[in-house]
Design a protein that fits this description.
By secondary structure, the chain is α/β, with parallel strands linked by helices. It has helices spanning 16-27, 43-48, 50-68, 83-107, 164-168, 184-195, 215-225, 318-332, 361-366, 382-386, 415-428, 432-437, 447-456; strands spanning 2-12, 32-36, 111-114, 116-121, 124-129, 132-143, 147-149, 161-162, 176-180, 199-204, 230-233, 235-243, 246-253, 257-261, 263-266, 270-272, 305-307, 346-348, 353-358, 371-377, 393-399, 405-412. The protein binds nicotinamide-adenine-dinucleotide. Residues 152, 180-186, 203-206, 211, 236-237, 267-270, 315-317, 347-349 line the site of nicotinamide-adenine-dinucleotide.
Length: 472
Amino acid sequence: MEHAIETGVAILGGGPGGYTAAFRAADLGLDVCLIEQGGRLGGVCLNVGCIPSKTLLHAVAAIEEARAAAAFGLRFDGLAIDIEALRAHKAKIVGQLAGGLDGLAKARKITRLTGRGRFADGRTLVVDGPAGTTRVRFNQAVIATGSRPAPLTAAPRDPRIWDSTEALALPLVPPRLLIVGGGIIGLEMAQVYHALGAAITIVESEPQIIPAADRDVVQPLFLHVKNRYQIRTGTRVAAMTALAEGIEVGLTGATEATEVFDAVLVAVGRRPNTGGLGLEALGLAADGRGFLAVDGQLRTAVPHIFSIGDVTGEPMLAHKAVHQGKVAAEAIAGRSSVFAPAAIPSVAYTSPEVAWVGLTEREAEQRGLACVKGKFPWGASGRALTAGAGIGVSKALFDAASGRLLGAGICGSNAGELIHEATLALETGATAETIARTVHAHPTLAETFAGAAEAACGSSTDLLPARPRKRT
Ligand code: NAD
């Protein structure tokens, strides 16, 4: 059965980018149709990404904290893990948030369509769903179709080889789990499965885990996990064979070995969902990596077609998509909004957390920038020590001439929250001196960022002097 509807703005994809664009456009008085193939709003982030992973990480943090508390005299013996209850808890949180989005969409009188959409021409989307086919005529459209896990060419099809969606479903706790990719997903899932009892091996092709951040920022995490997991950096998977007793994996590079695992998680990045959308009917084409080029207002080369989120390129992060969604909706409503953030923060919600924003030291070197760096080890922070969080570092990089913050990296408890002081400082062009002179409450973890800025200014009273003082 075929239906036809007309709308002002058609939004293809109901993830954080798509639903934000829809809600903002509706708030600006536009008539909106939101098309989502999965039925539930929230996309990867809510359904099979950020929210379920953070729910699991919070749960396993309780296990780790209970174990660590033995060091200061608190013992919680007899810990029992009920995986079924953990799965149900995760599903409840996801369901609660998805229900909230349904309510927000309904209150805005947004037309919802369930199905897979494809452009038939510059003003029409054809949506195939459970209720049949719907032709949606629109004035403007937003492509917000997100991304999917990148496959590993060596991996055969086997239920014991998982992507992040399958790993988050917690199908079982494998005795031996190989994680291919030591990036954000790899390290977060390693933490979950290790706490639940799996022996973890991580294979990372680059020389360090979380290669996107500076090595000295990642180091506290590395020191924390290096004896818990087998970490094989500079190593790739050359071959994978499904055997009855497990998945046999041939490793090549810094480690040359053949090992058998009970399950394998492939977490080697993501690919944009730009195939099968009928882009050719619009006269649009994705680039070689599958991304769609956009201008500052998120317009594609076809001015009434916008694109936001993972399909527009790196970084593929929900918070980037959300901000782009707002700008696209405002541009459609005729406003002059532009998406031009000074920087977008990244966070790995590991224990300790790793967060970074702006330029890394490596990127500053590659650009030939003259920089001044300040570092504050958390072992010198009273708050960190009282919270059992003495493993950590706050680092800040400033332009040598102007003193302005260029980038920052923080590793430690709550780094994902603390990084926003640096993000705001970057956005407002704050200097090392401004940050150092901003009064931070004592004792807090936030003092460590001010301490890094002070160190960059030449002297931090909480640290040893930069140069030993000669007695006169
Ligand atoms: P990633 O890019 O963070 O990490 C992938 C890692 O795999 C990299 O370190 C890369 O060097 C390595 N790698 C690539 N090919 C390899 C190979 N053949 N063998 C061994 N190692 C290989 O990607 P991800 O962890 O898969 O995450 C995907 C996306 O989702 C990223 O854009 C990430 O930012 C986003 N994400 C964000 C969060 C968060 O914000 N906390 C959480 C999960 C995912």
